[in-house]
Amino acid sequence: MTINTTAVSSATIAMMLADARLPVGGHVHSAGLEPALAGGMSPGQVPAYMLGRARTVTLVEAGTAVVARHVALQAEGQGDHRVVLPPGRLALELATIDGAWAARTPSRAVREVSRSLARGYQRLAGRLWATHPAVVACSRAGSGAFGQTPSRPVILGVIAAAAGLDAESLVRLVVYDDAQTIAAAMLKLEPLDPAVPPGWVLAACGVAEEFVADLARLTSPHAIPAWGAPESEGWAEAHSRTTQRLFRA
Amino acid sequence: MPENTTTPNNAPARSLRIGVAGPVGTGKSSLIATVCRALASELRLGVITNDIYTDEDARFLRSAGVLEPERIRAVETGACPHTAIRDDITVNLLAVEDLERDFDPLDVVLIESGGDNLTATFSPALVDAQIFVLDVAGGGDVARKGGPGIARADLLVVNKTDLAPYVGVDVATMVADAETAREGRQVLALSRSDAASVETLAAWVRGLLVQHRAGTHTPQDPGPMAPHFHADEEGGPGVMHTHDDTEHAHEGQPAHSHP
């Protein structure tokens, strides 16, 4: 069943996608926090860790999602030029965006985790927006031009296009989701007053705000930012080889 | 009731998916090892474990040597084993589908829940049937306490009956209490050292598989809720029901509201 979401506001879509209760498997992720703490980062550094991600890797995610949304909109002629991308071209362009994201995400562990998380979103998209050409293209990924399961930001951008989420809200969603994932995982991993981390989340969203407008205007995979967090990637690699994990990553 | 789903493209033959739930330490992993030992020579099996720290149970099962290690996979639950089998089954569904794809065709996939409390049950969107496991060492009165898994799982196992003399529990009484709580649904007194009880368990799995393949088995939901009352829309007397009523549908327009 495809739900007609044209009557639903962009704000509502953003709220739904940001809700941890959305059944996409997000609860098994910690946005790198468990790997970081296991790797020796002190709990006192978590707010700085959150801010650091909000200004680096999270913006790579956000930029990727925005460009994927831009291309996915063209699948139904909703882009700036009202051209309709044929399905083969659409899959190729989404694959190119995915490749641009992968090139900016050097850790294999981080890439694999993103693709596994993406499968949860794909399952949801297959229920809610099954007939959208970009959702179809992603569901066929693994064969043809699109070599593998798309990354999370690509499927998120596709969902944004299918569901009617605007580009700026999409950027804010990616930033918020990353910070909130850390905040929720923190309470599972370290003793803390649960009322404290929400303040960190708002601070992280605040420091990313100056990037929102520029990121929301991106249309080309080449323009996706390439900021990194190498230590975090190292922790993720180490975590992927441990056996005693609470969180996938 | 949500239906089970499989991957739309190139979907392998869909296995029978059986959930194994129950409190910590009642012998869920051991029961799975017992099933594997009894059936691995006649059925193609796979196992998914959900544990606190990813792969404790998976390692136990691999070391038990009852199945090729590759057929036993662990998923992380983000410290929410309850959620991972009920309200966000994503990671488990993906793991089952991957296992079915990699070892196509599989006959049965057993999914072990992380040891949680008495209220954790599987979503029927994840498993076709579920076994709830108690043990005599947990106390003879646990079965009387009831709860969704005890009362309405497809099969209730009272495990470790060989320990009963040492913990002062009368197995017959515990089984009778369980049968009362379950209103006649099947209860199995099991010990891995009691061959007859193991054969009864194996026969239950075989029988379920026959029904699954014939398309005559419908997943039932033990539900998280106690039996509750629905007012009749037509102003009639209303009905008491549990969520194993097949006509009870949440898809589309609800026929009722939960208070």
Topology:
The complex is a heterodimer of chains A (249) and B (259).
Chain A: H1 10-18, H2 33-38, H3 46-54, H4 57-74, H5 87-103, H6 108-128, H7 133-139, H8 152-163, H9 167-189, H10 197-216, H11 230-239
Helix pairs in contact in A: 1-9, 3-9, 3-10, 4-5, 4-8, 4-9, 4-10, 5-7, 6-8, 9-10
Chain B: E1 16-21, H1 28-39, E2 45-50, H2 56-64, E3 72-75, H3 81-85, H4 90-102, E4 108-112, E5 129-135, H5 142-145, H6 148-152, E6 155-159, H7 164-167, H8 171-181, E7 187-189, H9 195-214, E8 228-230, E9 239-241
Parallel strand pairs in B: 1-4, 1-5, 2-3, 2-4, 5-6, 6-7
Antiparallel strand pairs in B: 8-9
Q: Identify the strand order in the major beta sheet of chain B.
A: 3-2-4-1-5-6-7
Oligomer: heterodimer
Give the helix/strand class of chain B.
Answer: alpha/beta
Number of domains of chain A: 1
Relative strand content of chain A: under 5%
CATH topology of the largest domain in chain B: Rossmann fold
Order of helical and strand elements of chain B: EHEHEHHEEHHEHHEHEE
Shape of chain B from CA axes? globular
Reading off the top of the CATH hierarchy, the class of the largest domain in chain B is best stated as: Alpha Beta
Main interface: chain pair and counts? A-B, 25 and 23 residues
CATH C-level name of chain A: Mainly Alpha
Q: How many angstroms does the end-to-end distance of chain B come to?
A: 19 Å
Q: Which value, in Å, is the CA radius of gyration of chain A?
A: 17 Å
CATH architecture of the largest domain in chain B: 3-Layer(aba) Sandwich
Short description:
The complex is a heterodimer of chains A (249) and B (259). Chain A has helices at 10-18, 33-38, 46-54, 57-74, 87-103, 108-128, 133-139, 152-163, 167-189, 197-216, 230-239.
Structure description:
The complex is a heterodimer of chains A (249) and B (259). In chain A, 61% of the residues lie in helices and 0% in strands. Chain A is mostly helical. Chain A has a single domain, classed as Urease accessory protein UreF (Orthogonal Bundle). Chain B is α/β, with parallel strands linked by helices and 259 residues long. Chain B has 2 domains: 16-214, P-loop containing nucleotide triphosphate hydrolases (Rossmann fold, 3-Layer(aba) Sandwich); 228-259, no CATH class. Chain B contains 9 helices and 9 strands. In chain B, the strands form 2 sheets. Chain B has a 7-stranded parallel sheet, sandwiched between helices. In chain B, helix 1 packs across helix 9. Chain B is globular and about 45 Å long. In chain B, 47% of the residues are buried.
